[in-house]
Amino acid sequence: AASSGSASRTSATSRASAAPDGGTRTAVVLFTADLRVHDHPPLHAARRSADALVPLFVRDPAVDRAGFAAPNRLAFLADCLADLDGALRERGGRLVLRTGDTVAEVCRVVRETGADEVHAAAGCTAFARAREARLRQALEEHGCRLTVHDGVDSVVPPGDVVPHGSDHFAVFSPYFRRWADQPVRAPLPAPRTVRVPEDVASEPLPSRAAVPAVSPGLAAGGESEARRRLRSWLSRHLDAYEDRHDVLDDRAGDGTSRLSPFLHFGALSPTEAVHRARAHGPGAGADAFVRQLCWRDFHRQVLAARPAVARDDYRPRHDHWRRGKDAEADLAAWREGRTGYPLVDAGMRQLAHEGWMHNRARLVTASFLTKTLYVDWREGARHFLDLLVDGDVANNQLNWQWVAGTGTDTRPNRVLNPVRQAQSHDPEGTYVRHWVPELAGLEGAAVHEPWRLTGLDRAGFDYPDPVVALADGLARFRSARAAD
Ligand code: FAD
Fold this sequence. Notes:
Layout: E1 8-10, E2 26-31, H1 41-49, E3 52-59, H2 61-65, H3 71-90, E4 96-99, H4 102-113, E5 117-121, H5 126-141, E6 145-149, H6 172-181, H7 223-237, H8 241-244, H9 260-265, H10 270-280, H11 284-305, H12 325-336, H13 342-354, H14 359-372, H15 377-387, H16 393-404, H17 418-425, H18 430-435, H19 455-459, H20 470-482
Parallel strand pairs: 2-3, 2-5, 3-4, 5-6
Antiparallel strand pairs: 1-6
């Protein structure tokens, strides 16, 4: 299959060059997790084939019931919708918002406008695929054509590169080699004009004030912000990415791009991000950044092939995760950032405050929960999804599984030591002191081991003792795994 990312699948109904009554051809563009006008294959295709467009977003309660909605993401979504509406208005159009079942609402808009085609982006989750199948069937009954576009949410669509004899790659490195060889299509321009039929009713867009985030330091969303950030981050920080992406005590917070929420909501096209990074390169920074973007596609192709991994172990290891009161108490301490391990607590507090966490801290906090505390990865993944503004079924569940050893990591028994990780990735202790202000009085790397303080020194800090000694946690994990 073509991996340029521009492929599309169209339902059987034949295509006419003008509306059957000789009037205006109208197309509905269904926006889901693709909230942008640049490099948007469905919008581009619809604009080329129809005279009038209905850019539609449906607030579907089923999305909330499926656990995809969370206050931080709803707040960010409000920004994205407002920005998309603004971009469409600049082009003469607007965004139409409806609430209800997506399939029913699309059909309603098709009936109201006499639209003869619907364009939408392919999704990789079981939820998105089931919705697509229902939509296809319902639109066929209306005699309306559905075109589902690949390569909107990923650079190389799931299933486009597969190893011999399998429907997906289970190991990242060989996937990356094949992925990197694929040609990447040029990003599509935003349409210059968009004409929306006047009489199509829309609900008012939600304002960010009406959907308050739970994290006070949540970033602003929207395509304009995504494009501004992409441009400025690439020009100022891409070259240093290879060296700085794992540095936690990065005061400016620019060691990594922080583009993940924009990519999650599709306010930024991953194809355009790859294209622009490569255009800025060549260099180790651009190569490393593009490789990270490949991880998104890697997880998407695993999830598309094995939808159950959102819940079930990818490689079952028959773990007997700790349960009961003690495990509950440890889980609560982890969630609240009071495990007594400063780096773990710093990461968890960054998550609570910003709805985002540095990747190195995600790795350490997840390893601590699933290995040192030996608590089920599903508990951690749920907490992350409740707070992460980039919370994404493919990336979250599969990264959690990777760390827990039930996923695609080829070294499933590796355990990250939070003290050694802190010493390597936050050598001066800046990150920890910022997020754990109780320890701000401890200088340098001493902040990573407050339990070494004795007597009076220790009494000055209102900070918990470690929930478990690292050696005991490691022994418990190893004996559980040995019993497997
Ligand atoms: P950068 O370093 O600038 O990387 C650029 C982009 O590459 C990111 O925006 C992201 O889209 C992608 N990327 C980078 N690392 C990974 C990775 N390991 N897996 C997949 N894509 C990656 N990422 C999410 O987008 N959503 C999640 O819900 C999520 N949950 C995670 C849970 C755990 C336990 C772990 C260990 C990682 C998780 N990640 C998740 C991956 C990674 O931590 C974030 O993508 C990254 O921290 C985002 O910051 P950035 O945009 O500055 O990344």
